[in-house]
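Quick start: load a record and inspect it. Here is Translocase of outer mitochondrial membrane 6:
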Amino acid sequence: AAMAAAGAAAGGAAGAVAAPPRGIRAWLRSAFRFATDRNDFRRNLLVNLGLFAAGVWVARNLTDIDLMAPQPVP
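Running the structure step on this input writes:
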């Protein structure tokens, strides 16, 4: 754990790619490190792709709402 932390601190993203996490604690630790690393290109790429996919989903699934349609008169 100390070697991985030192490698992540010294090498940035290169230290985080070392080995796949084994066990739930290691997975949570790597997920937390991935989510909190401010200089991580992969995290930024995944967040941007996720936001883009959410926008595409909203645009495709909410297109049946016509804001310019005349409203019914009660």
